[in-house]
């Protein structure tokens, strides 16, 4: 398996990966498409097996009310893997590589809305324990992964995702 940066020529394959990974729903595919169209992707990676895109992960900027330039939080998601390639480490590899790139680029922490049990393996914890909420009102499913010691010291507030996350479900 090769993991490499997303390119524009991957767009159709990535749309299909997310559509199939999410049981035919296209909300996640539209989020990826809109974030890329707005040139707002921080990290966008594809997993390729035998020349075919089988997985994708997106990291995009978020903001925390009242903290502006003081903290750089990145939102993880969506992450999708074709059903026939799930449970083979593709998603985990994409997430780990993306987290490493975000850390190397100077991001302070990564947030996401997802299954807290699944994401705990990557070091994610309940965001509300750090004083962080989100614009969608989720609690248990909203998790954060600090990328260095003290990353979230003195940071609290409501995290806002890119407009594509709201637009995709409208």
From TrEMBL:
InterPro entries: Acyl_CoA_acyltransferase, GNAT_dom, MshD_Acetyltransferase
Superkingdom of source: Archaea
SUPFAM superfamilies in alphabetical order: Acyl-CoA N-acyltransferases (Nat)
Domain named N-acetyltransferase: residues: 1-149
PROSITE patterns registered for this protein in UniProt: GNAT (PS51186)
GO MF terms, alphabetically ordered: acyltransferase activity, transferring groups other than amino-acyl groups
Pfam name, any one: Acetyltransf_9
Name the UniProt record assigns to this protein: N-acetyltransferase
Biological source species: Salinirubellus salinus
